[in-house]
Amino acid sequence: MTEYDLWKIFPRMPKKVEIGDITIRDGFQHEEKFISTAAKIFYLEEVIFAGVRDVEVTNLGNPIGMPQFADAEDLLTYFRGDLFKKRAARRGINYDDLCFTAITIREPAVDRAIELKERGIGPDRLLMMVSTEEEHHFANSGTTLPDYWQEAERSIKKCNDAGMTMCGCVSTIWGSPIGGATDLGDAVEFTKRWLEIGASDIEHADHDGSASAAEVYRYYSMILDEMPDTELHIAHFHETKRVASASILAALQAGITRYEGTFGGLGGQPANFLDDRPIRGTGEYYYKDPRYVGLVCLEDTLVMIDELGIKHGCDVDRILWLGQKMEKTIGRRLRSEAVINGRTLKEGHMEFARPGLRPRKQKMGETPTQKVPGNWAPKAVLPEKYAKK
User: Fold this and answer.
1) Domains of the chain by residue range
2) Which residues of 78-112 are buried (b: 16+ CB within 10 A; e: fewer)?
3) CATH of 6-341, one of 3.20.20.70, 3.30.530.20, 3.40.50.300, 1.10.1790.10
C-alpha cells in the first residue's frame, strides 16, 4: 500500500521553519531607481511586525558602486534607535530575537561594519560570498578564490572579535550563468571551508535559478549527512524558469528549515543604472531579459509553506498586503501570484456561486448533501479490469 503521509516518506521534512526577508538589500539592489529611505524603513519594520525575525538591512560596500545603499547608516540608526524598539515592544516583539544583517562582500565593508558597531549602530550579522565557479566569483568580488578565502578568514576574526557573526554564502552550487555546469561536491567542500574559518551559518545560493528539484534534494541531503545541524543552513533560490517552488519543496523534503525570499521576487545582479545615470554595479548584466531574474517570492513561498501545514510564525495576510503595496512602491506588476489570488480559503468564495442550487435540489427531490443518484450504491464498484492486480 502506498504511504500517504509526506513526513513518513521524508522523515527529515520539518514541521516548523524560519523565513527571512531580504527584499531591502537583495531585492532593491537590482532596481534601477532609488527606493526612498522612508520606504525601506516602512517595509523592514512592517515585515518584522508581521513575524519575520531575520532581515537583510543593507549593503555596506562602497556606495559609489551601488548608490541604492547610500542610506545604509540611516537605516541602521533607525533600527538601533529607541523609537523602533518601543514600537516593537508594544507589539510583543523581543528585540533580542531580531537579527539585522548587512552584506560585506569585501574586507573594507567589514571594517565599516566594525566601525558602525563601535558607534552602537552596527548590524548583528555580516555576509561574505564565494562562488564555486571562479569566473562568477571574480565578477562579483574582483579577486581570485584563494585570495578571497584569506580575506574572508581575516574578516571573520575581526567580525567575531567585534561581537558580530559572519554568514558564509556559497554560490553557483547548481550552475553558473557565466561558467556553466558546476560540481555539487565543490559546494559541500566550500561549506566546510566556511565553517572551518569561523562562519556562523551558511547561505546556500542558487543565484541564477539553475537548480532542479532532484539536484536540490541530492545536494541538501549531502549537506545534512555531513553537517546535520539545520540551524547552520539557509536555502536561497532565484526564480528564472518558474520551477523554484519545486526546489523549495525538495529542500523541505531533504530537511532544510531556514529559507529566505523577497517581496514580488525582486532582486538579482546589482543594477548598473540608477535613476538617470549609469553606475558601476558589478558590470554588464549576465542575463538577456530583466523580467526573468530575481528571487523566490516571499509571499508565494510563505503561502506554500503555510498550506503544507508547516509552522512559520508569520502573519500571512499581512505579508500579502505588504506585497500588494510593494508593487505600488516599485511601480510595476511583480511576480507574486499569491498577492492576487491569496490563500486557498477552506470556506471557498461563495460570492461566485451561481444562484438557485438549493431550490433546484429540492425540486429534484435530492437532499442538500446528495452527490449521486439515490438508487446508486453508496460506494462505487470498480470494474475488475481497473482494479489493482
Assistant:
1) 6-341, 350-386
2) bbbeeebeeebeeeebeeeebbbbbbbbbbebbbb
3) 3.20.20.70
Q: Which three cell numbers stand for residue 11?
A: 522523515
Reply yes or no on whether the pLDDT at 182 is more than 90. Answer: yes
Q: Which of 45, 31, 75 is nearest to 264 (CA)?
A: 31
Cell numbers placing 295: 528571487
The full DSSP string for 45-68 is HHHHHTT--EEEEEE-S-TTT-GG
Choose among 342, 266, 253: nearest CA to 298. 266
Beta strand residue intervals within 25-156, DSSP E: 54-59, 99-103, 125-131
Q: Is the pTM of this model over 0.85?
A: yes
- For residue 261, the surrounding DSSP H or E stretch is strand 258-261
Q: What is the pLDDT of residues 322-331, one digit of tens each?
A: 999 999 999 9
Residue 48, sorted as left (phi over 0), alpha (psi -120 to 50) or beta, turns out to be: alpha
Strand partners, 130: 170
> What is the CA angle 127-132-136, rounded to 5?
80
Which has the closest alpha carbon to 238: 192, 309, 174, 322? 174
